[in-house]
Amino acid sequence: MVPHSRTPVRAHRLRPLNQPRPVAVQLNDRELPIAVSPELGVRDSESGLQVKTRTPNPELPAPVVFIGEIWRVDDEWWRQPISRRYIEVILSGGRHVVLYQDLNTGEWFEQSI
Questions:
Q1: Residue 89 domain-assigned?
Q2: Please, which contacts does 96-100 make with residues 24 or more away whose CB atoms are closer than 8 Å?
Q3: Per-residue pLDDT at 70
Q4: Banded model confidence at residue 100, pLDDT cuts 50, 70, 90
Q5: For 10-38, how does the pLDDT look when each residue is reduced to its tens digit (9 = 90+)?
Q6: Domain around 92
Q7: Number of domains in the chain
Q8: Does a structural domain hold residue 67?
């Protein structure tokens, strides 16, 4: 067993892992993803808020080659409602990700697995 180092806990310095990243998702006529591309964040000089814009490079979208499970989560209805549609996909480079759409705002996010 390792002895206690007596170092104080610094919870304020912890960083969450696998934070969702905003993405732009191209959908087919059945509302399923066919391509995913990163969104670039630009900080608004007046408000200081992060404004999302689609990347202008058309070569960046990664085609979706496989769609796995699809599920929906509706939770926290008594506080701040969470309503999301999750889609597990494999992109053309072999990367396995989970996409989700915030059904309250319509925004798409990517979580790596």
A1: yes
A2: 97/36, 99/23, 99/25, 99/33, 99/36, 100/20
A3: 97
A4: very high
A5: 777 777 777 899 999 999 999 999 999 98
A6: 18-112
A7: 1
A8: yes
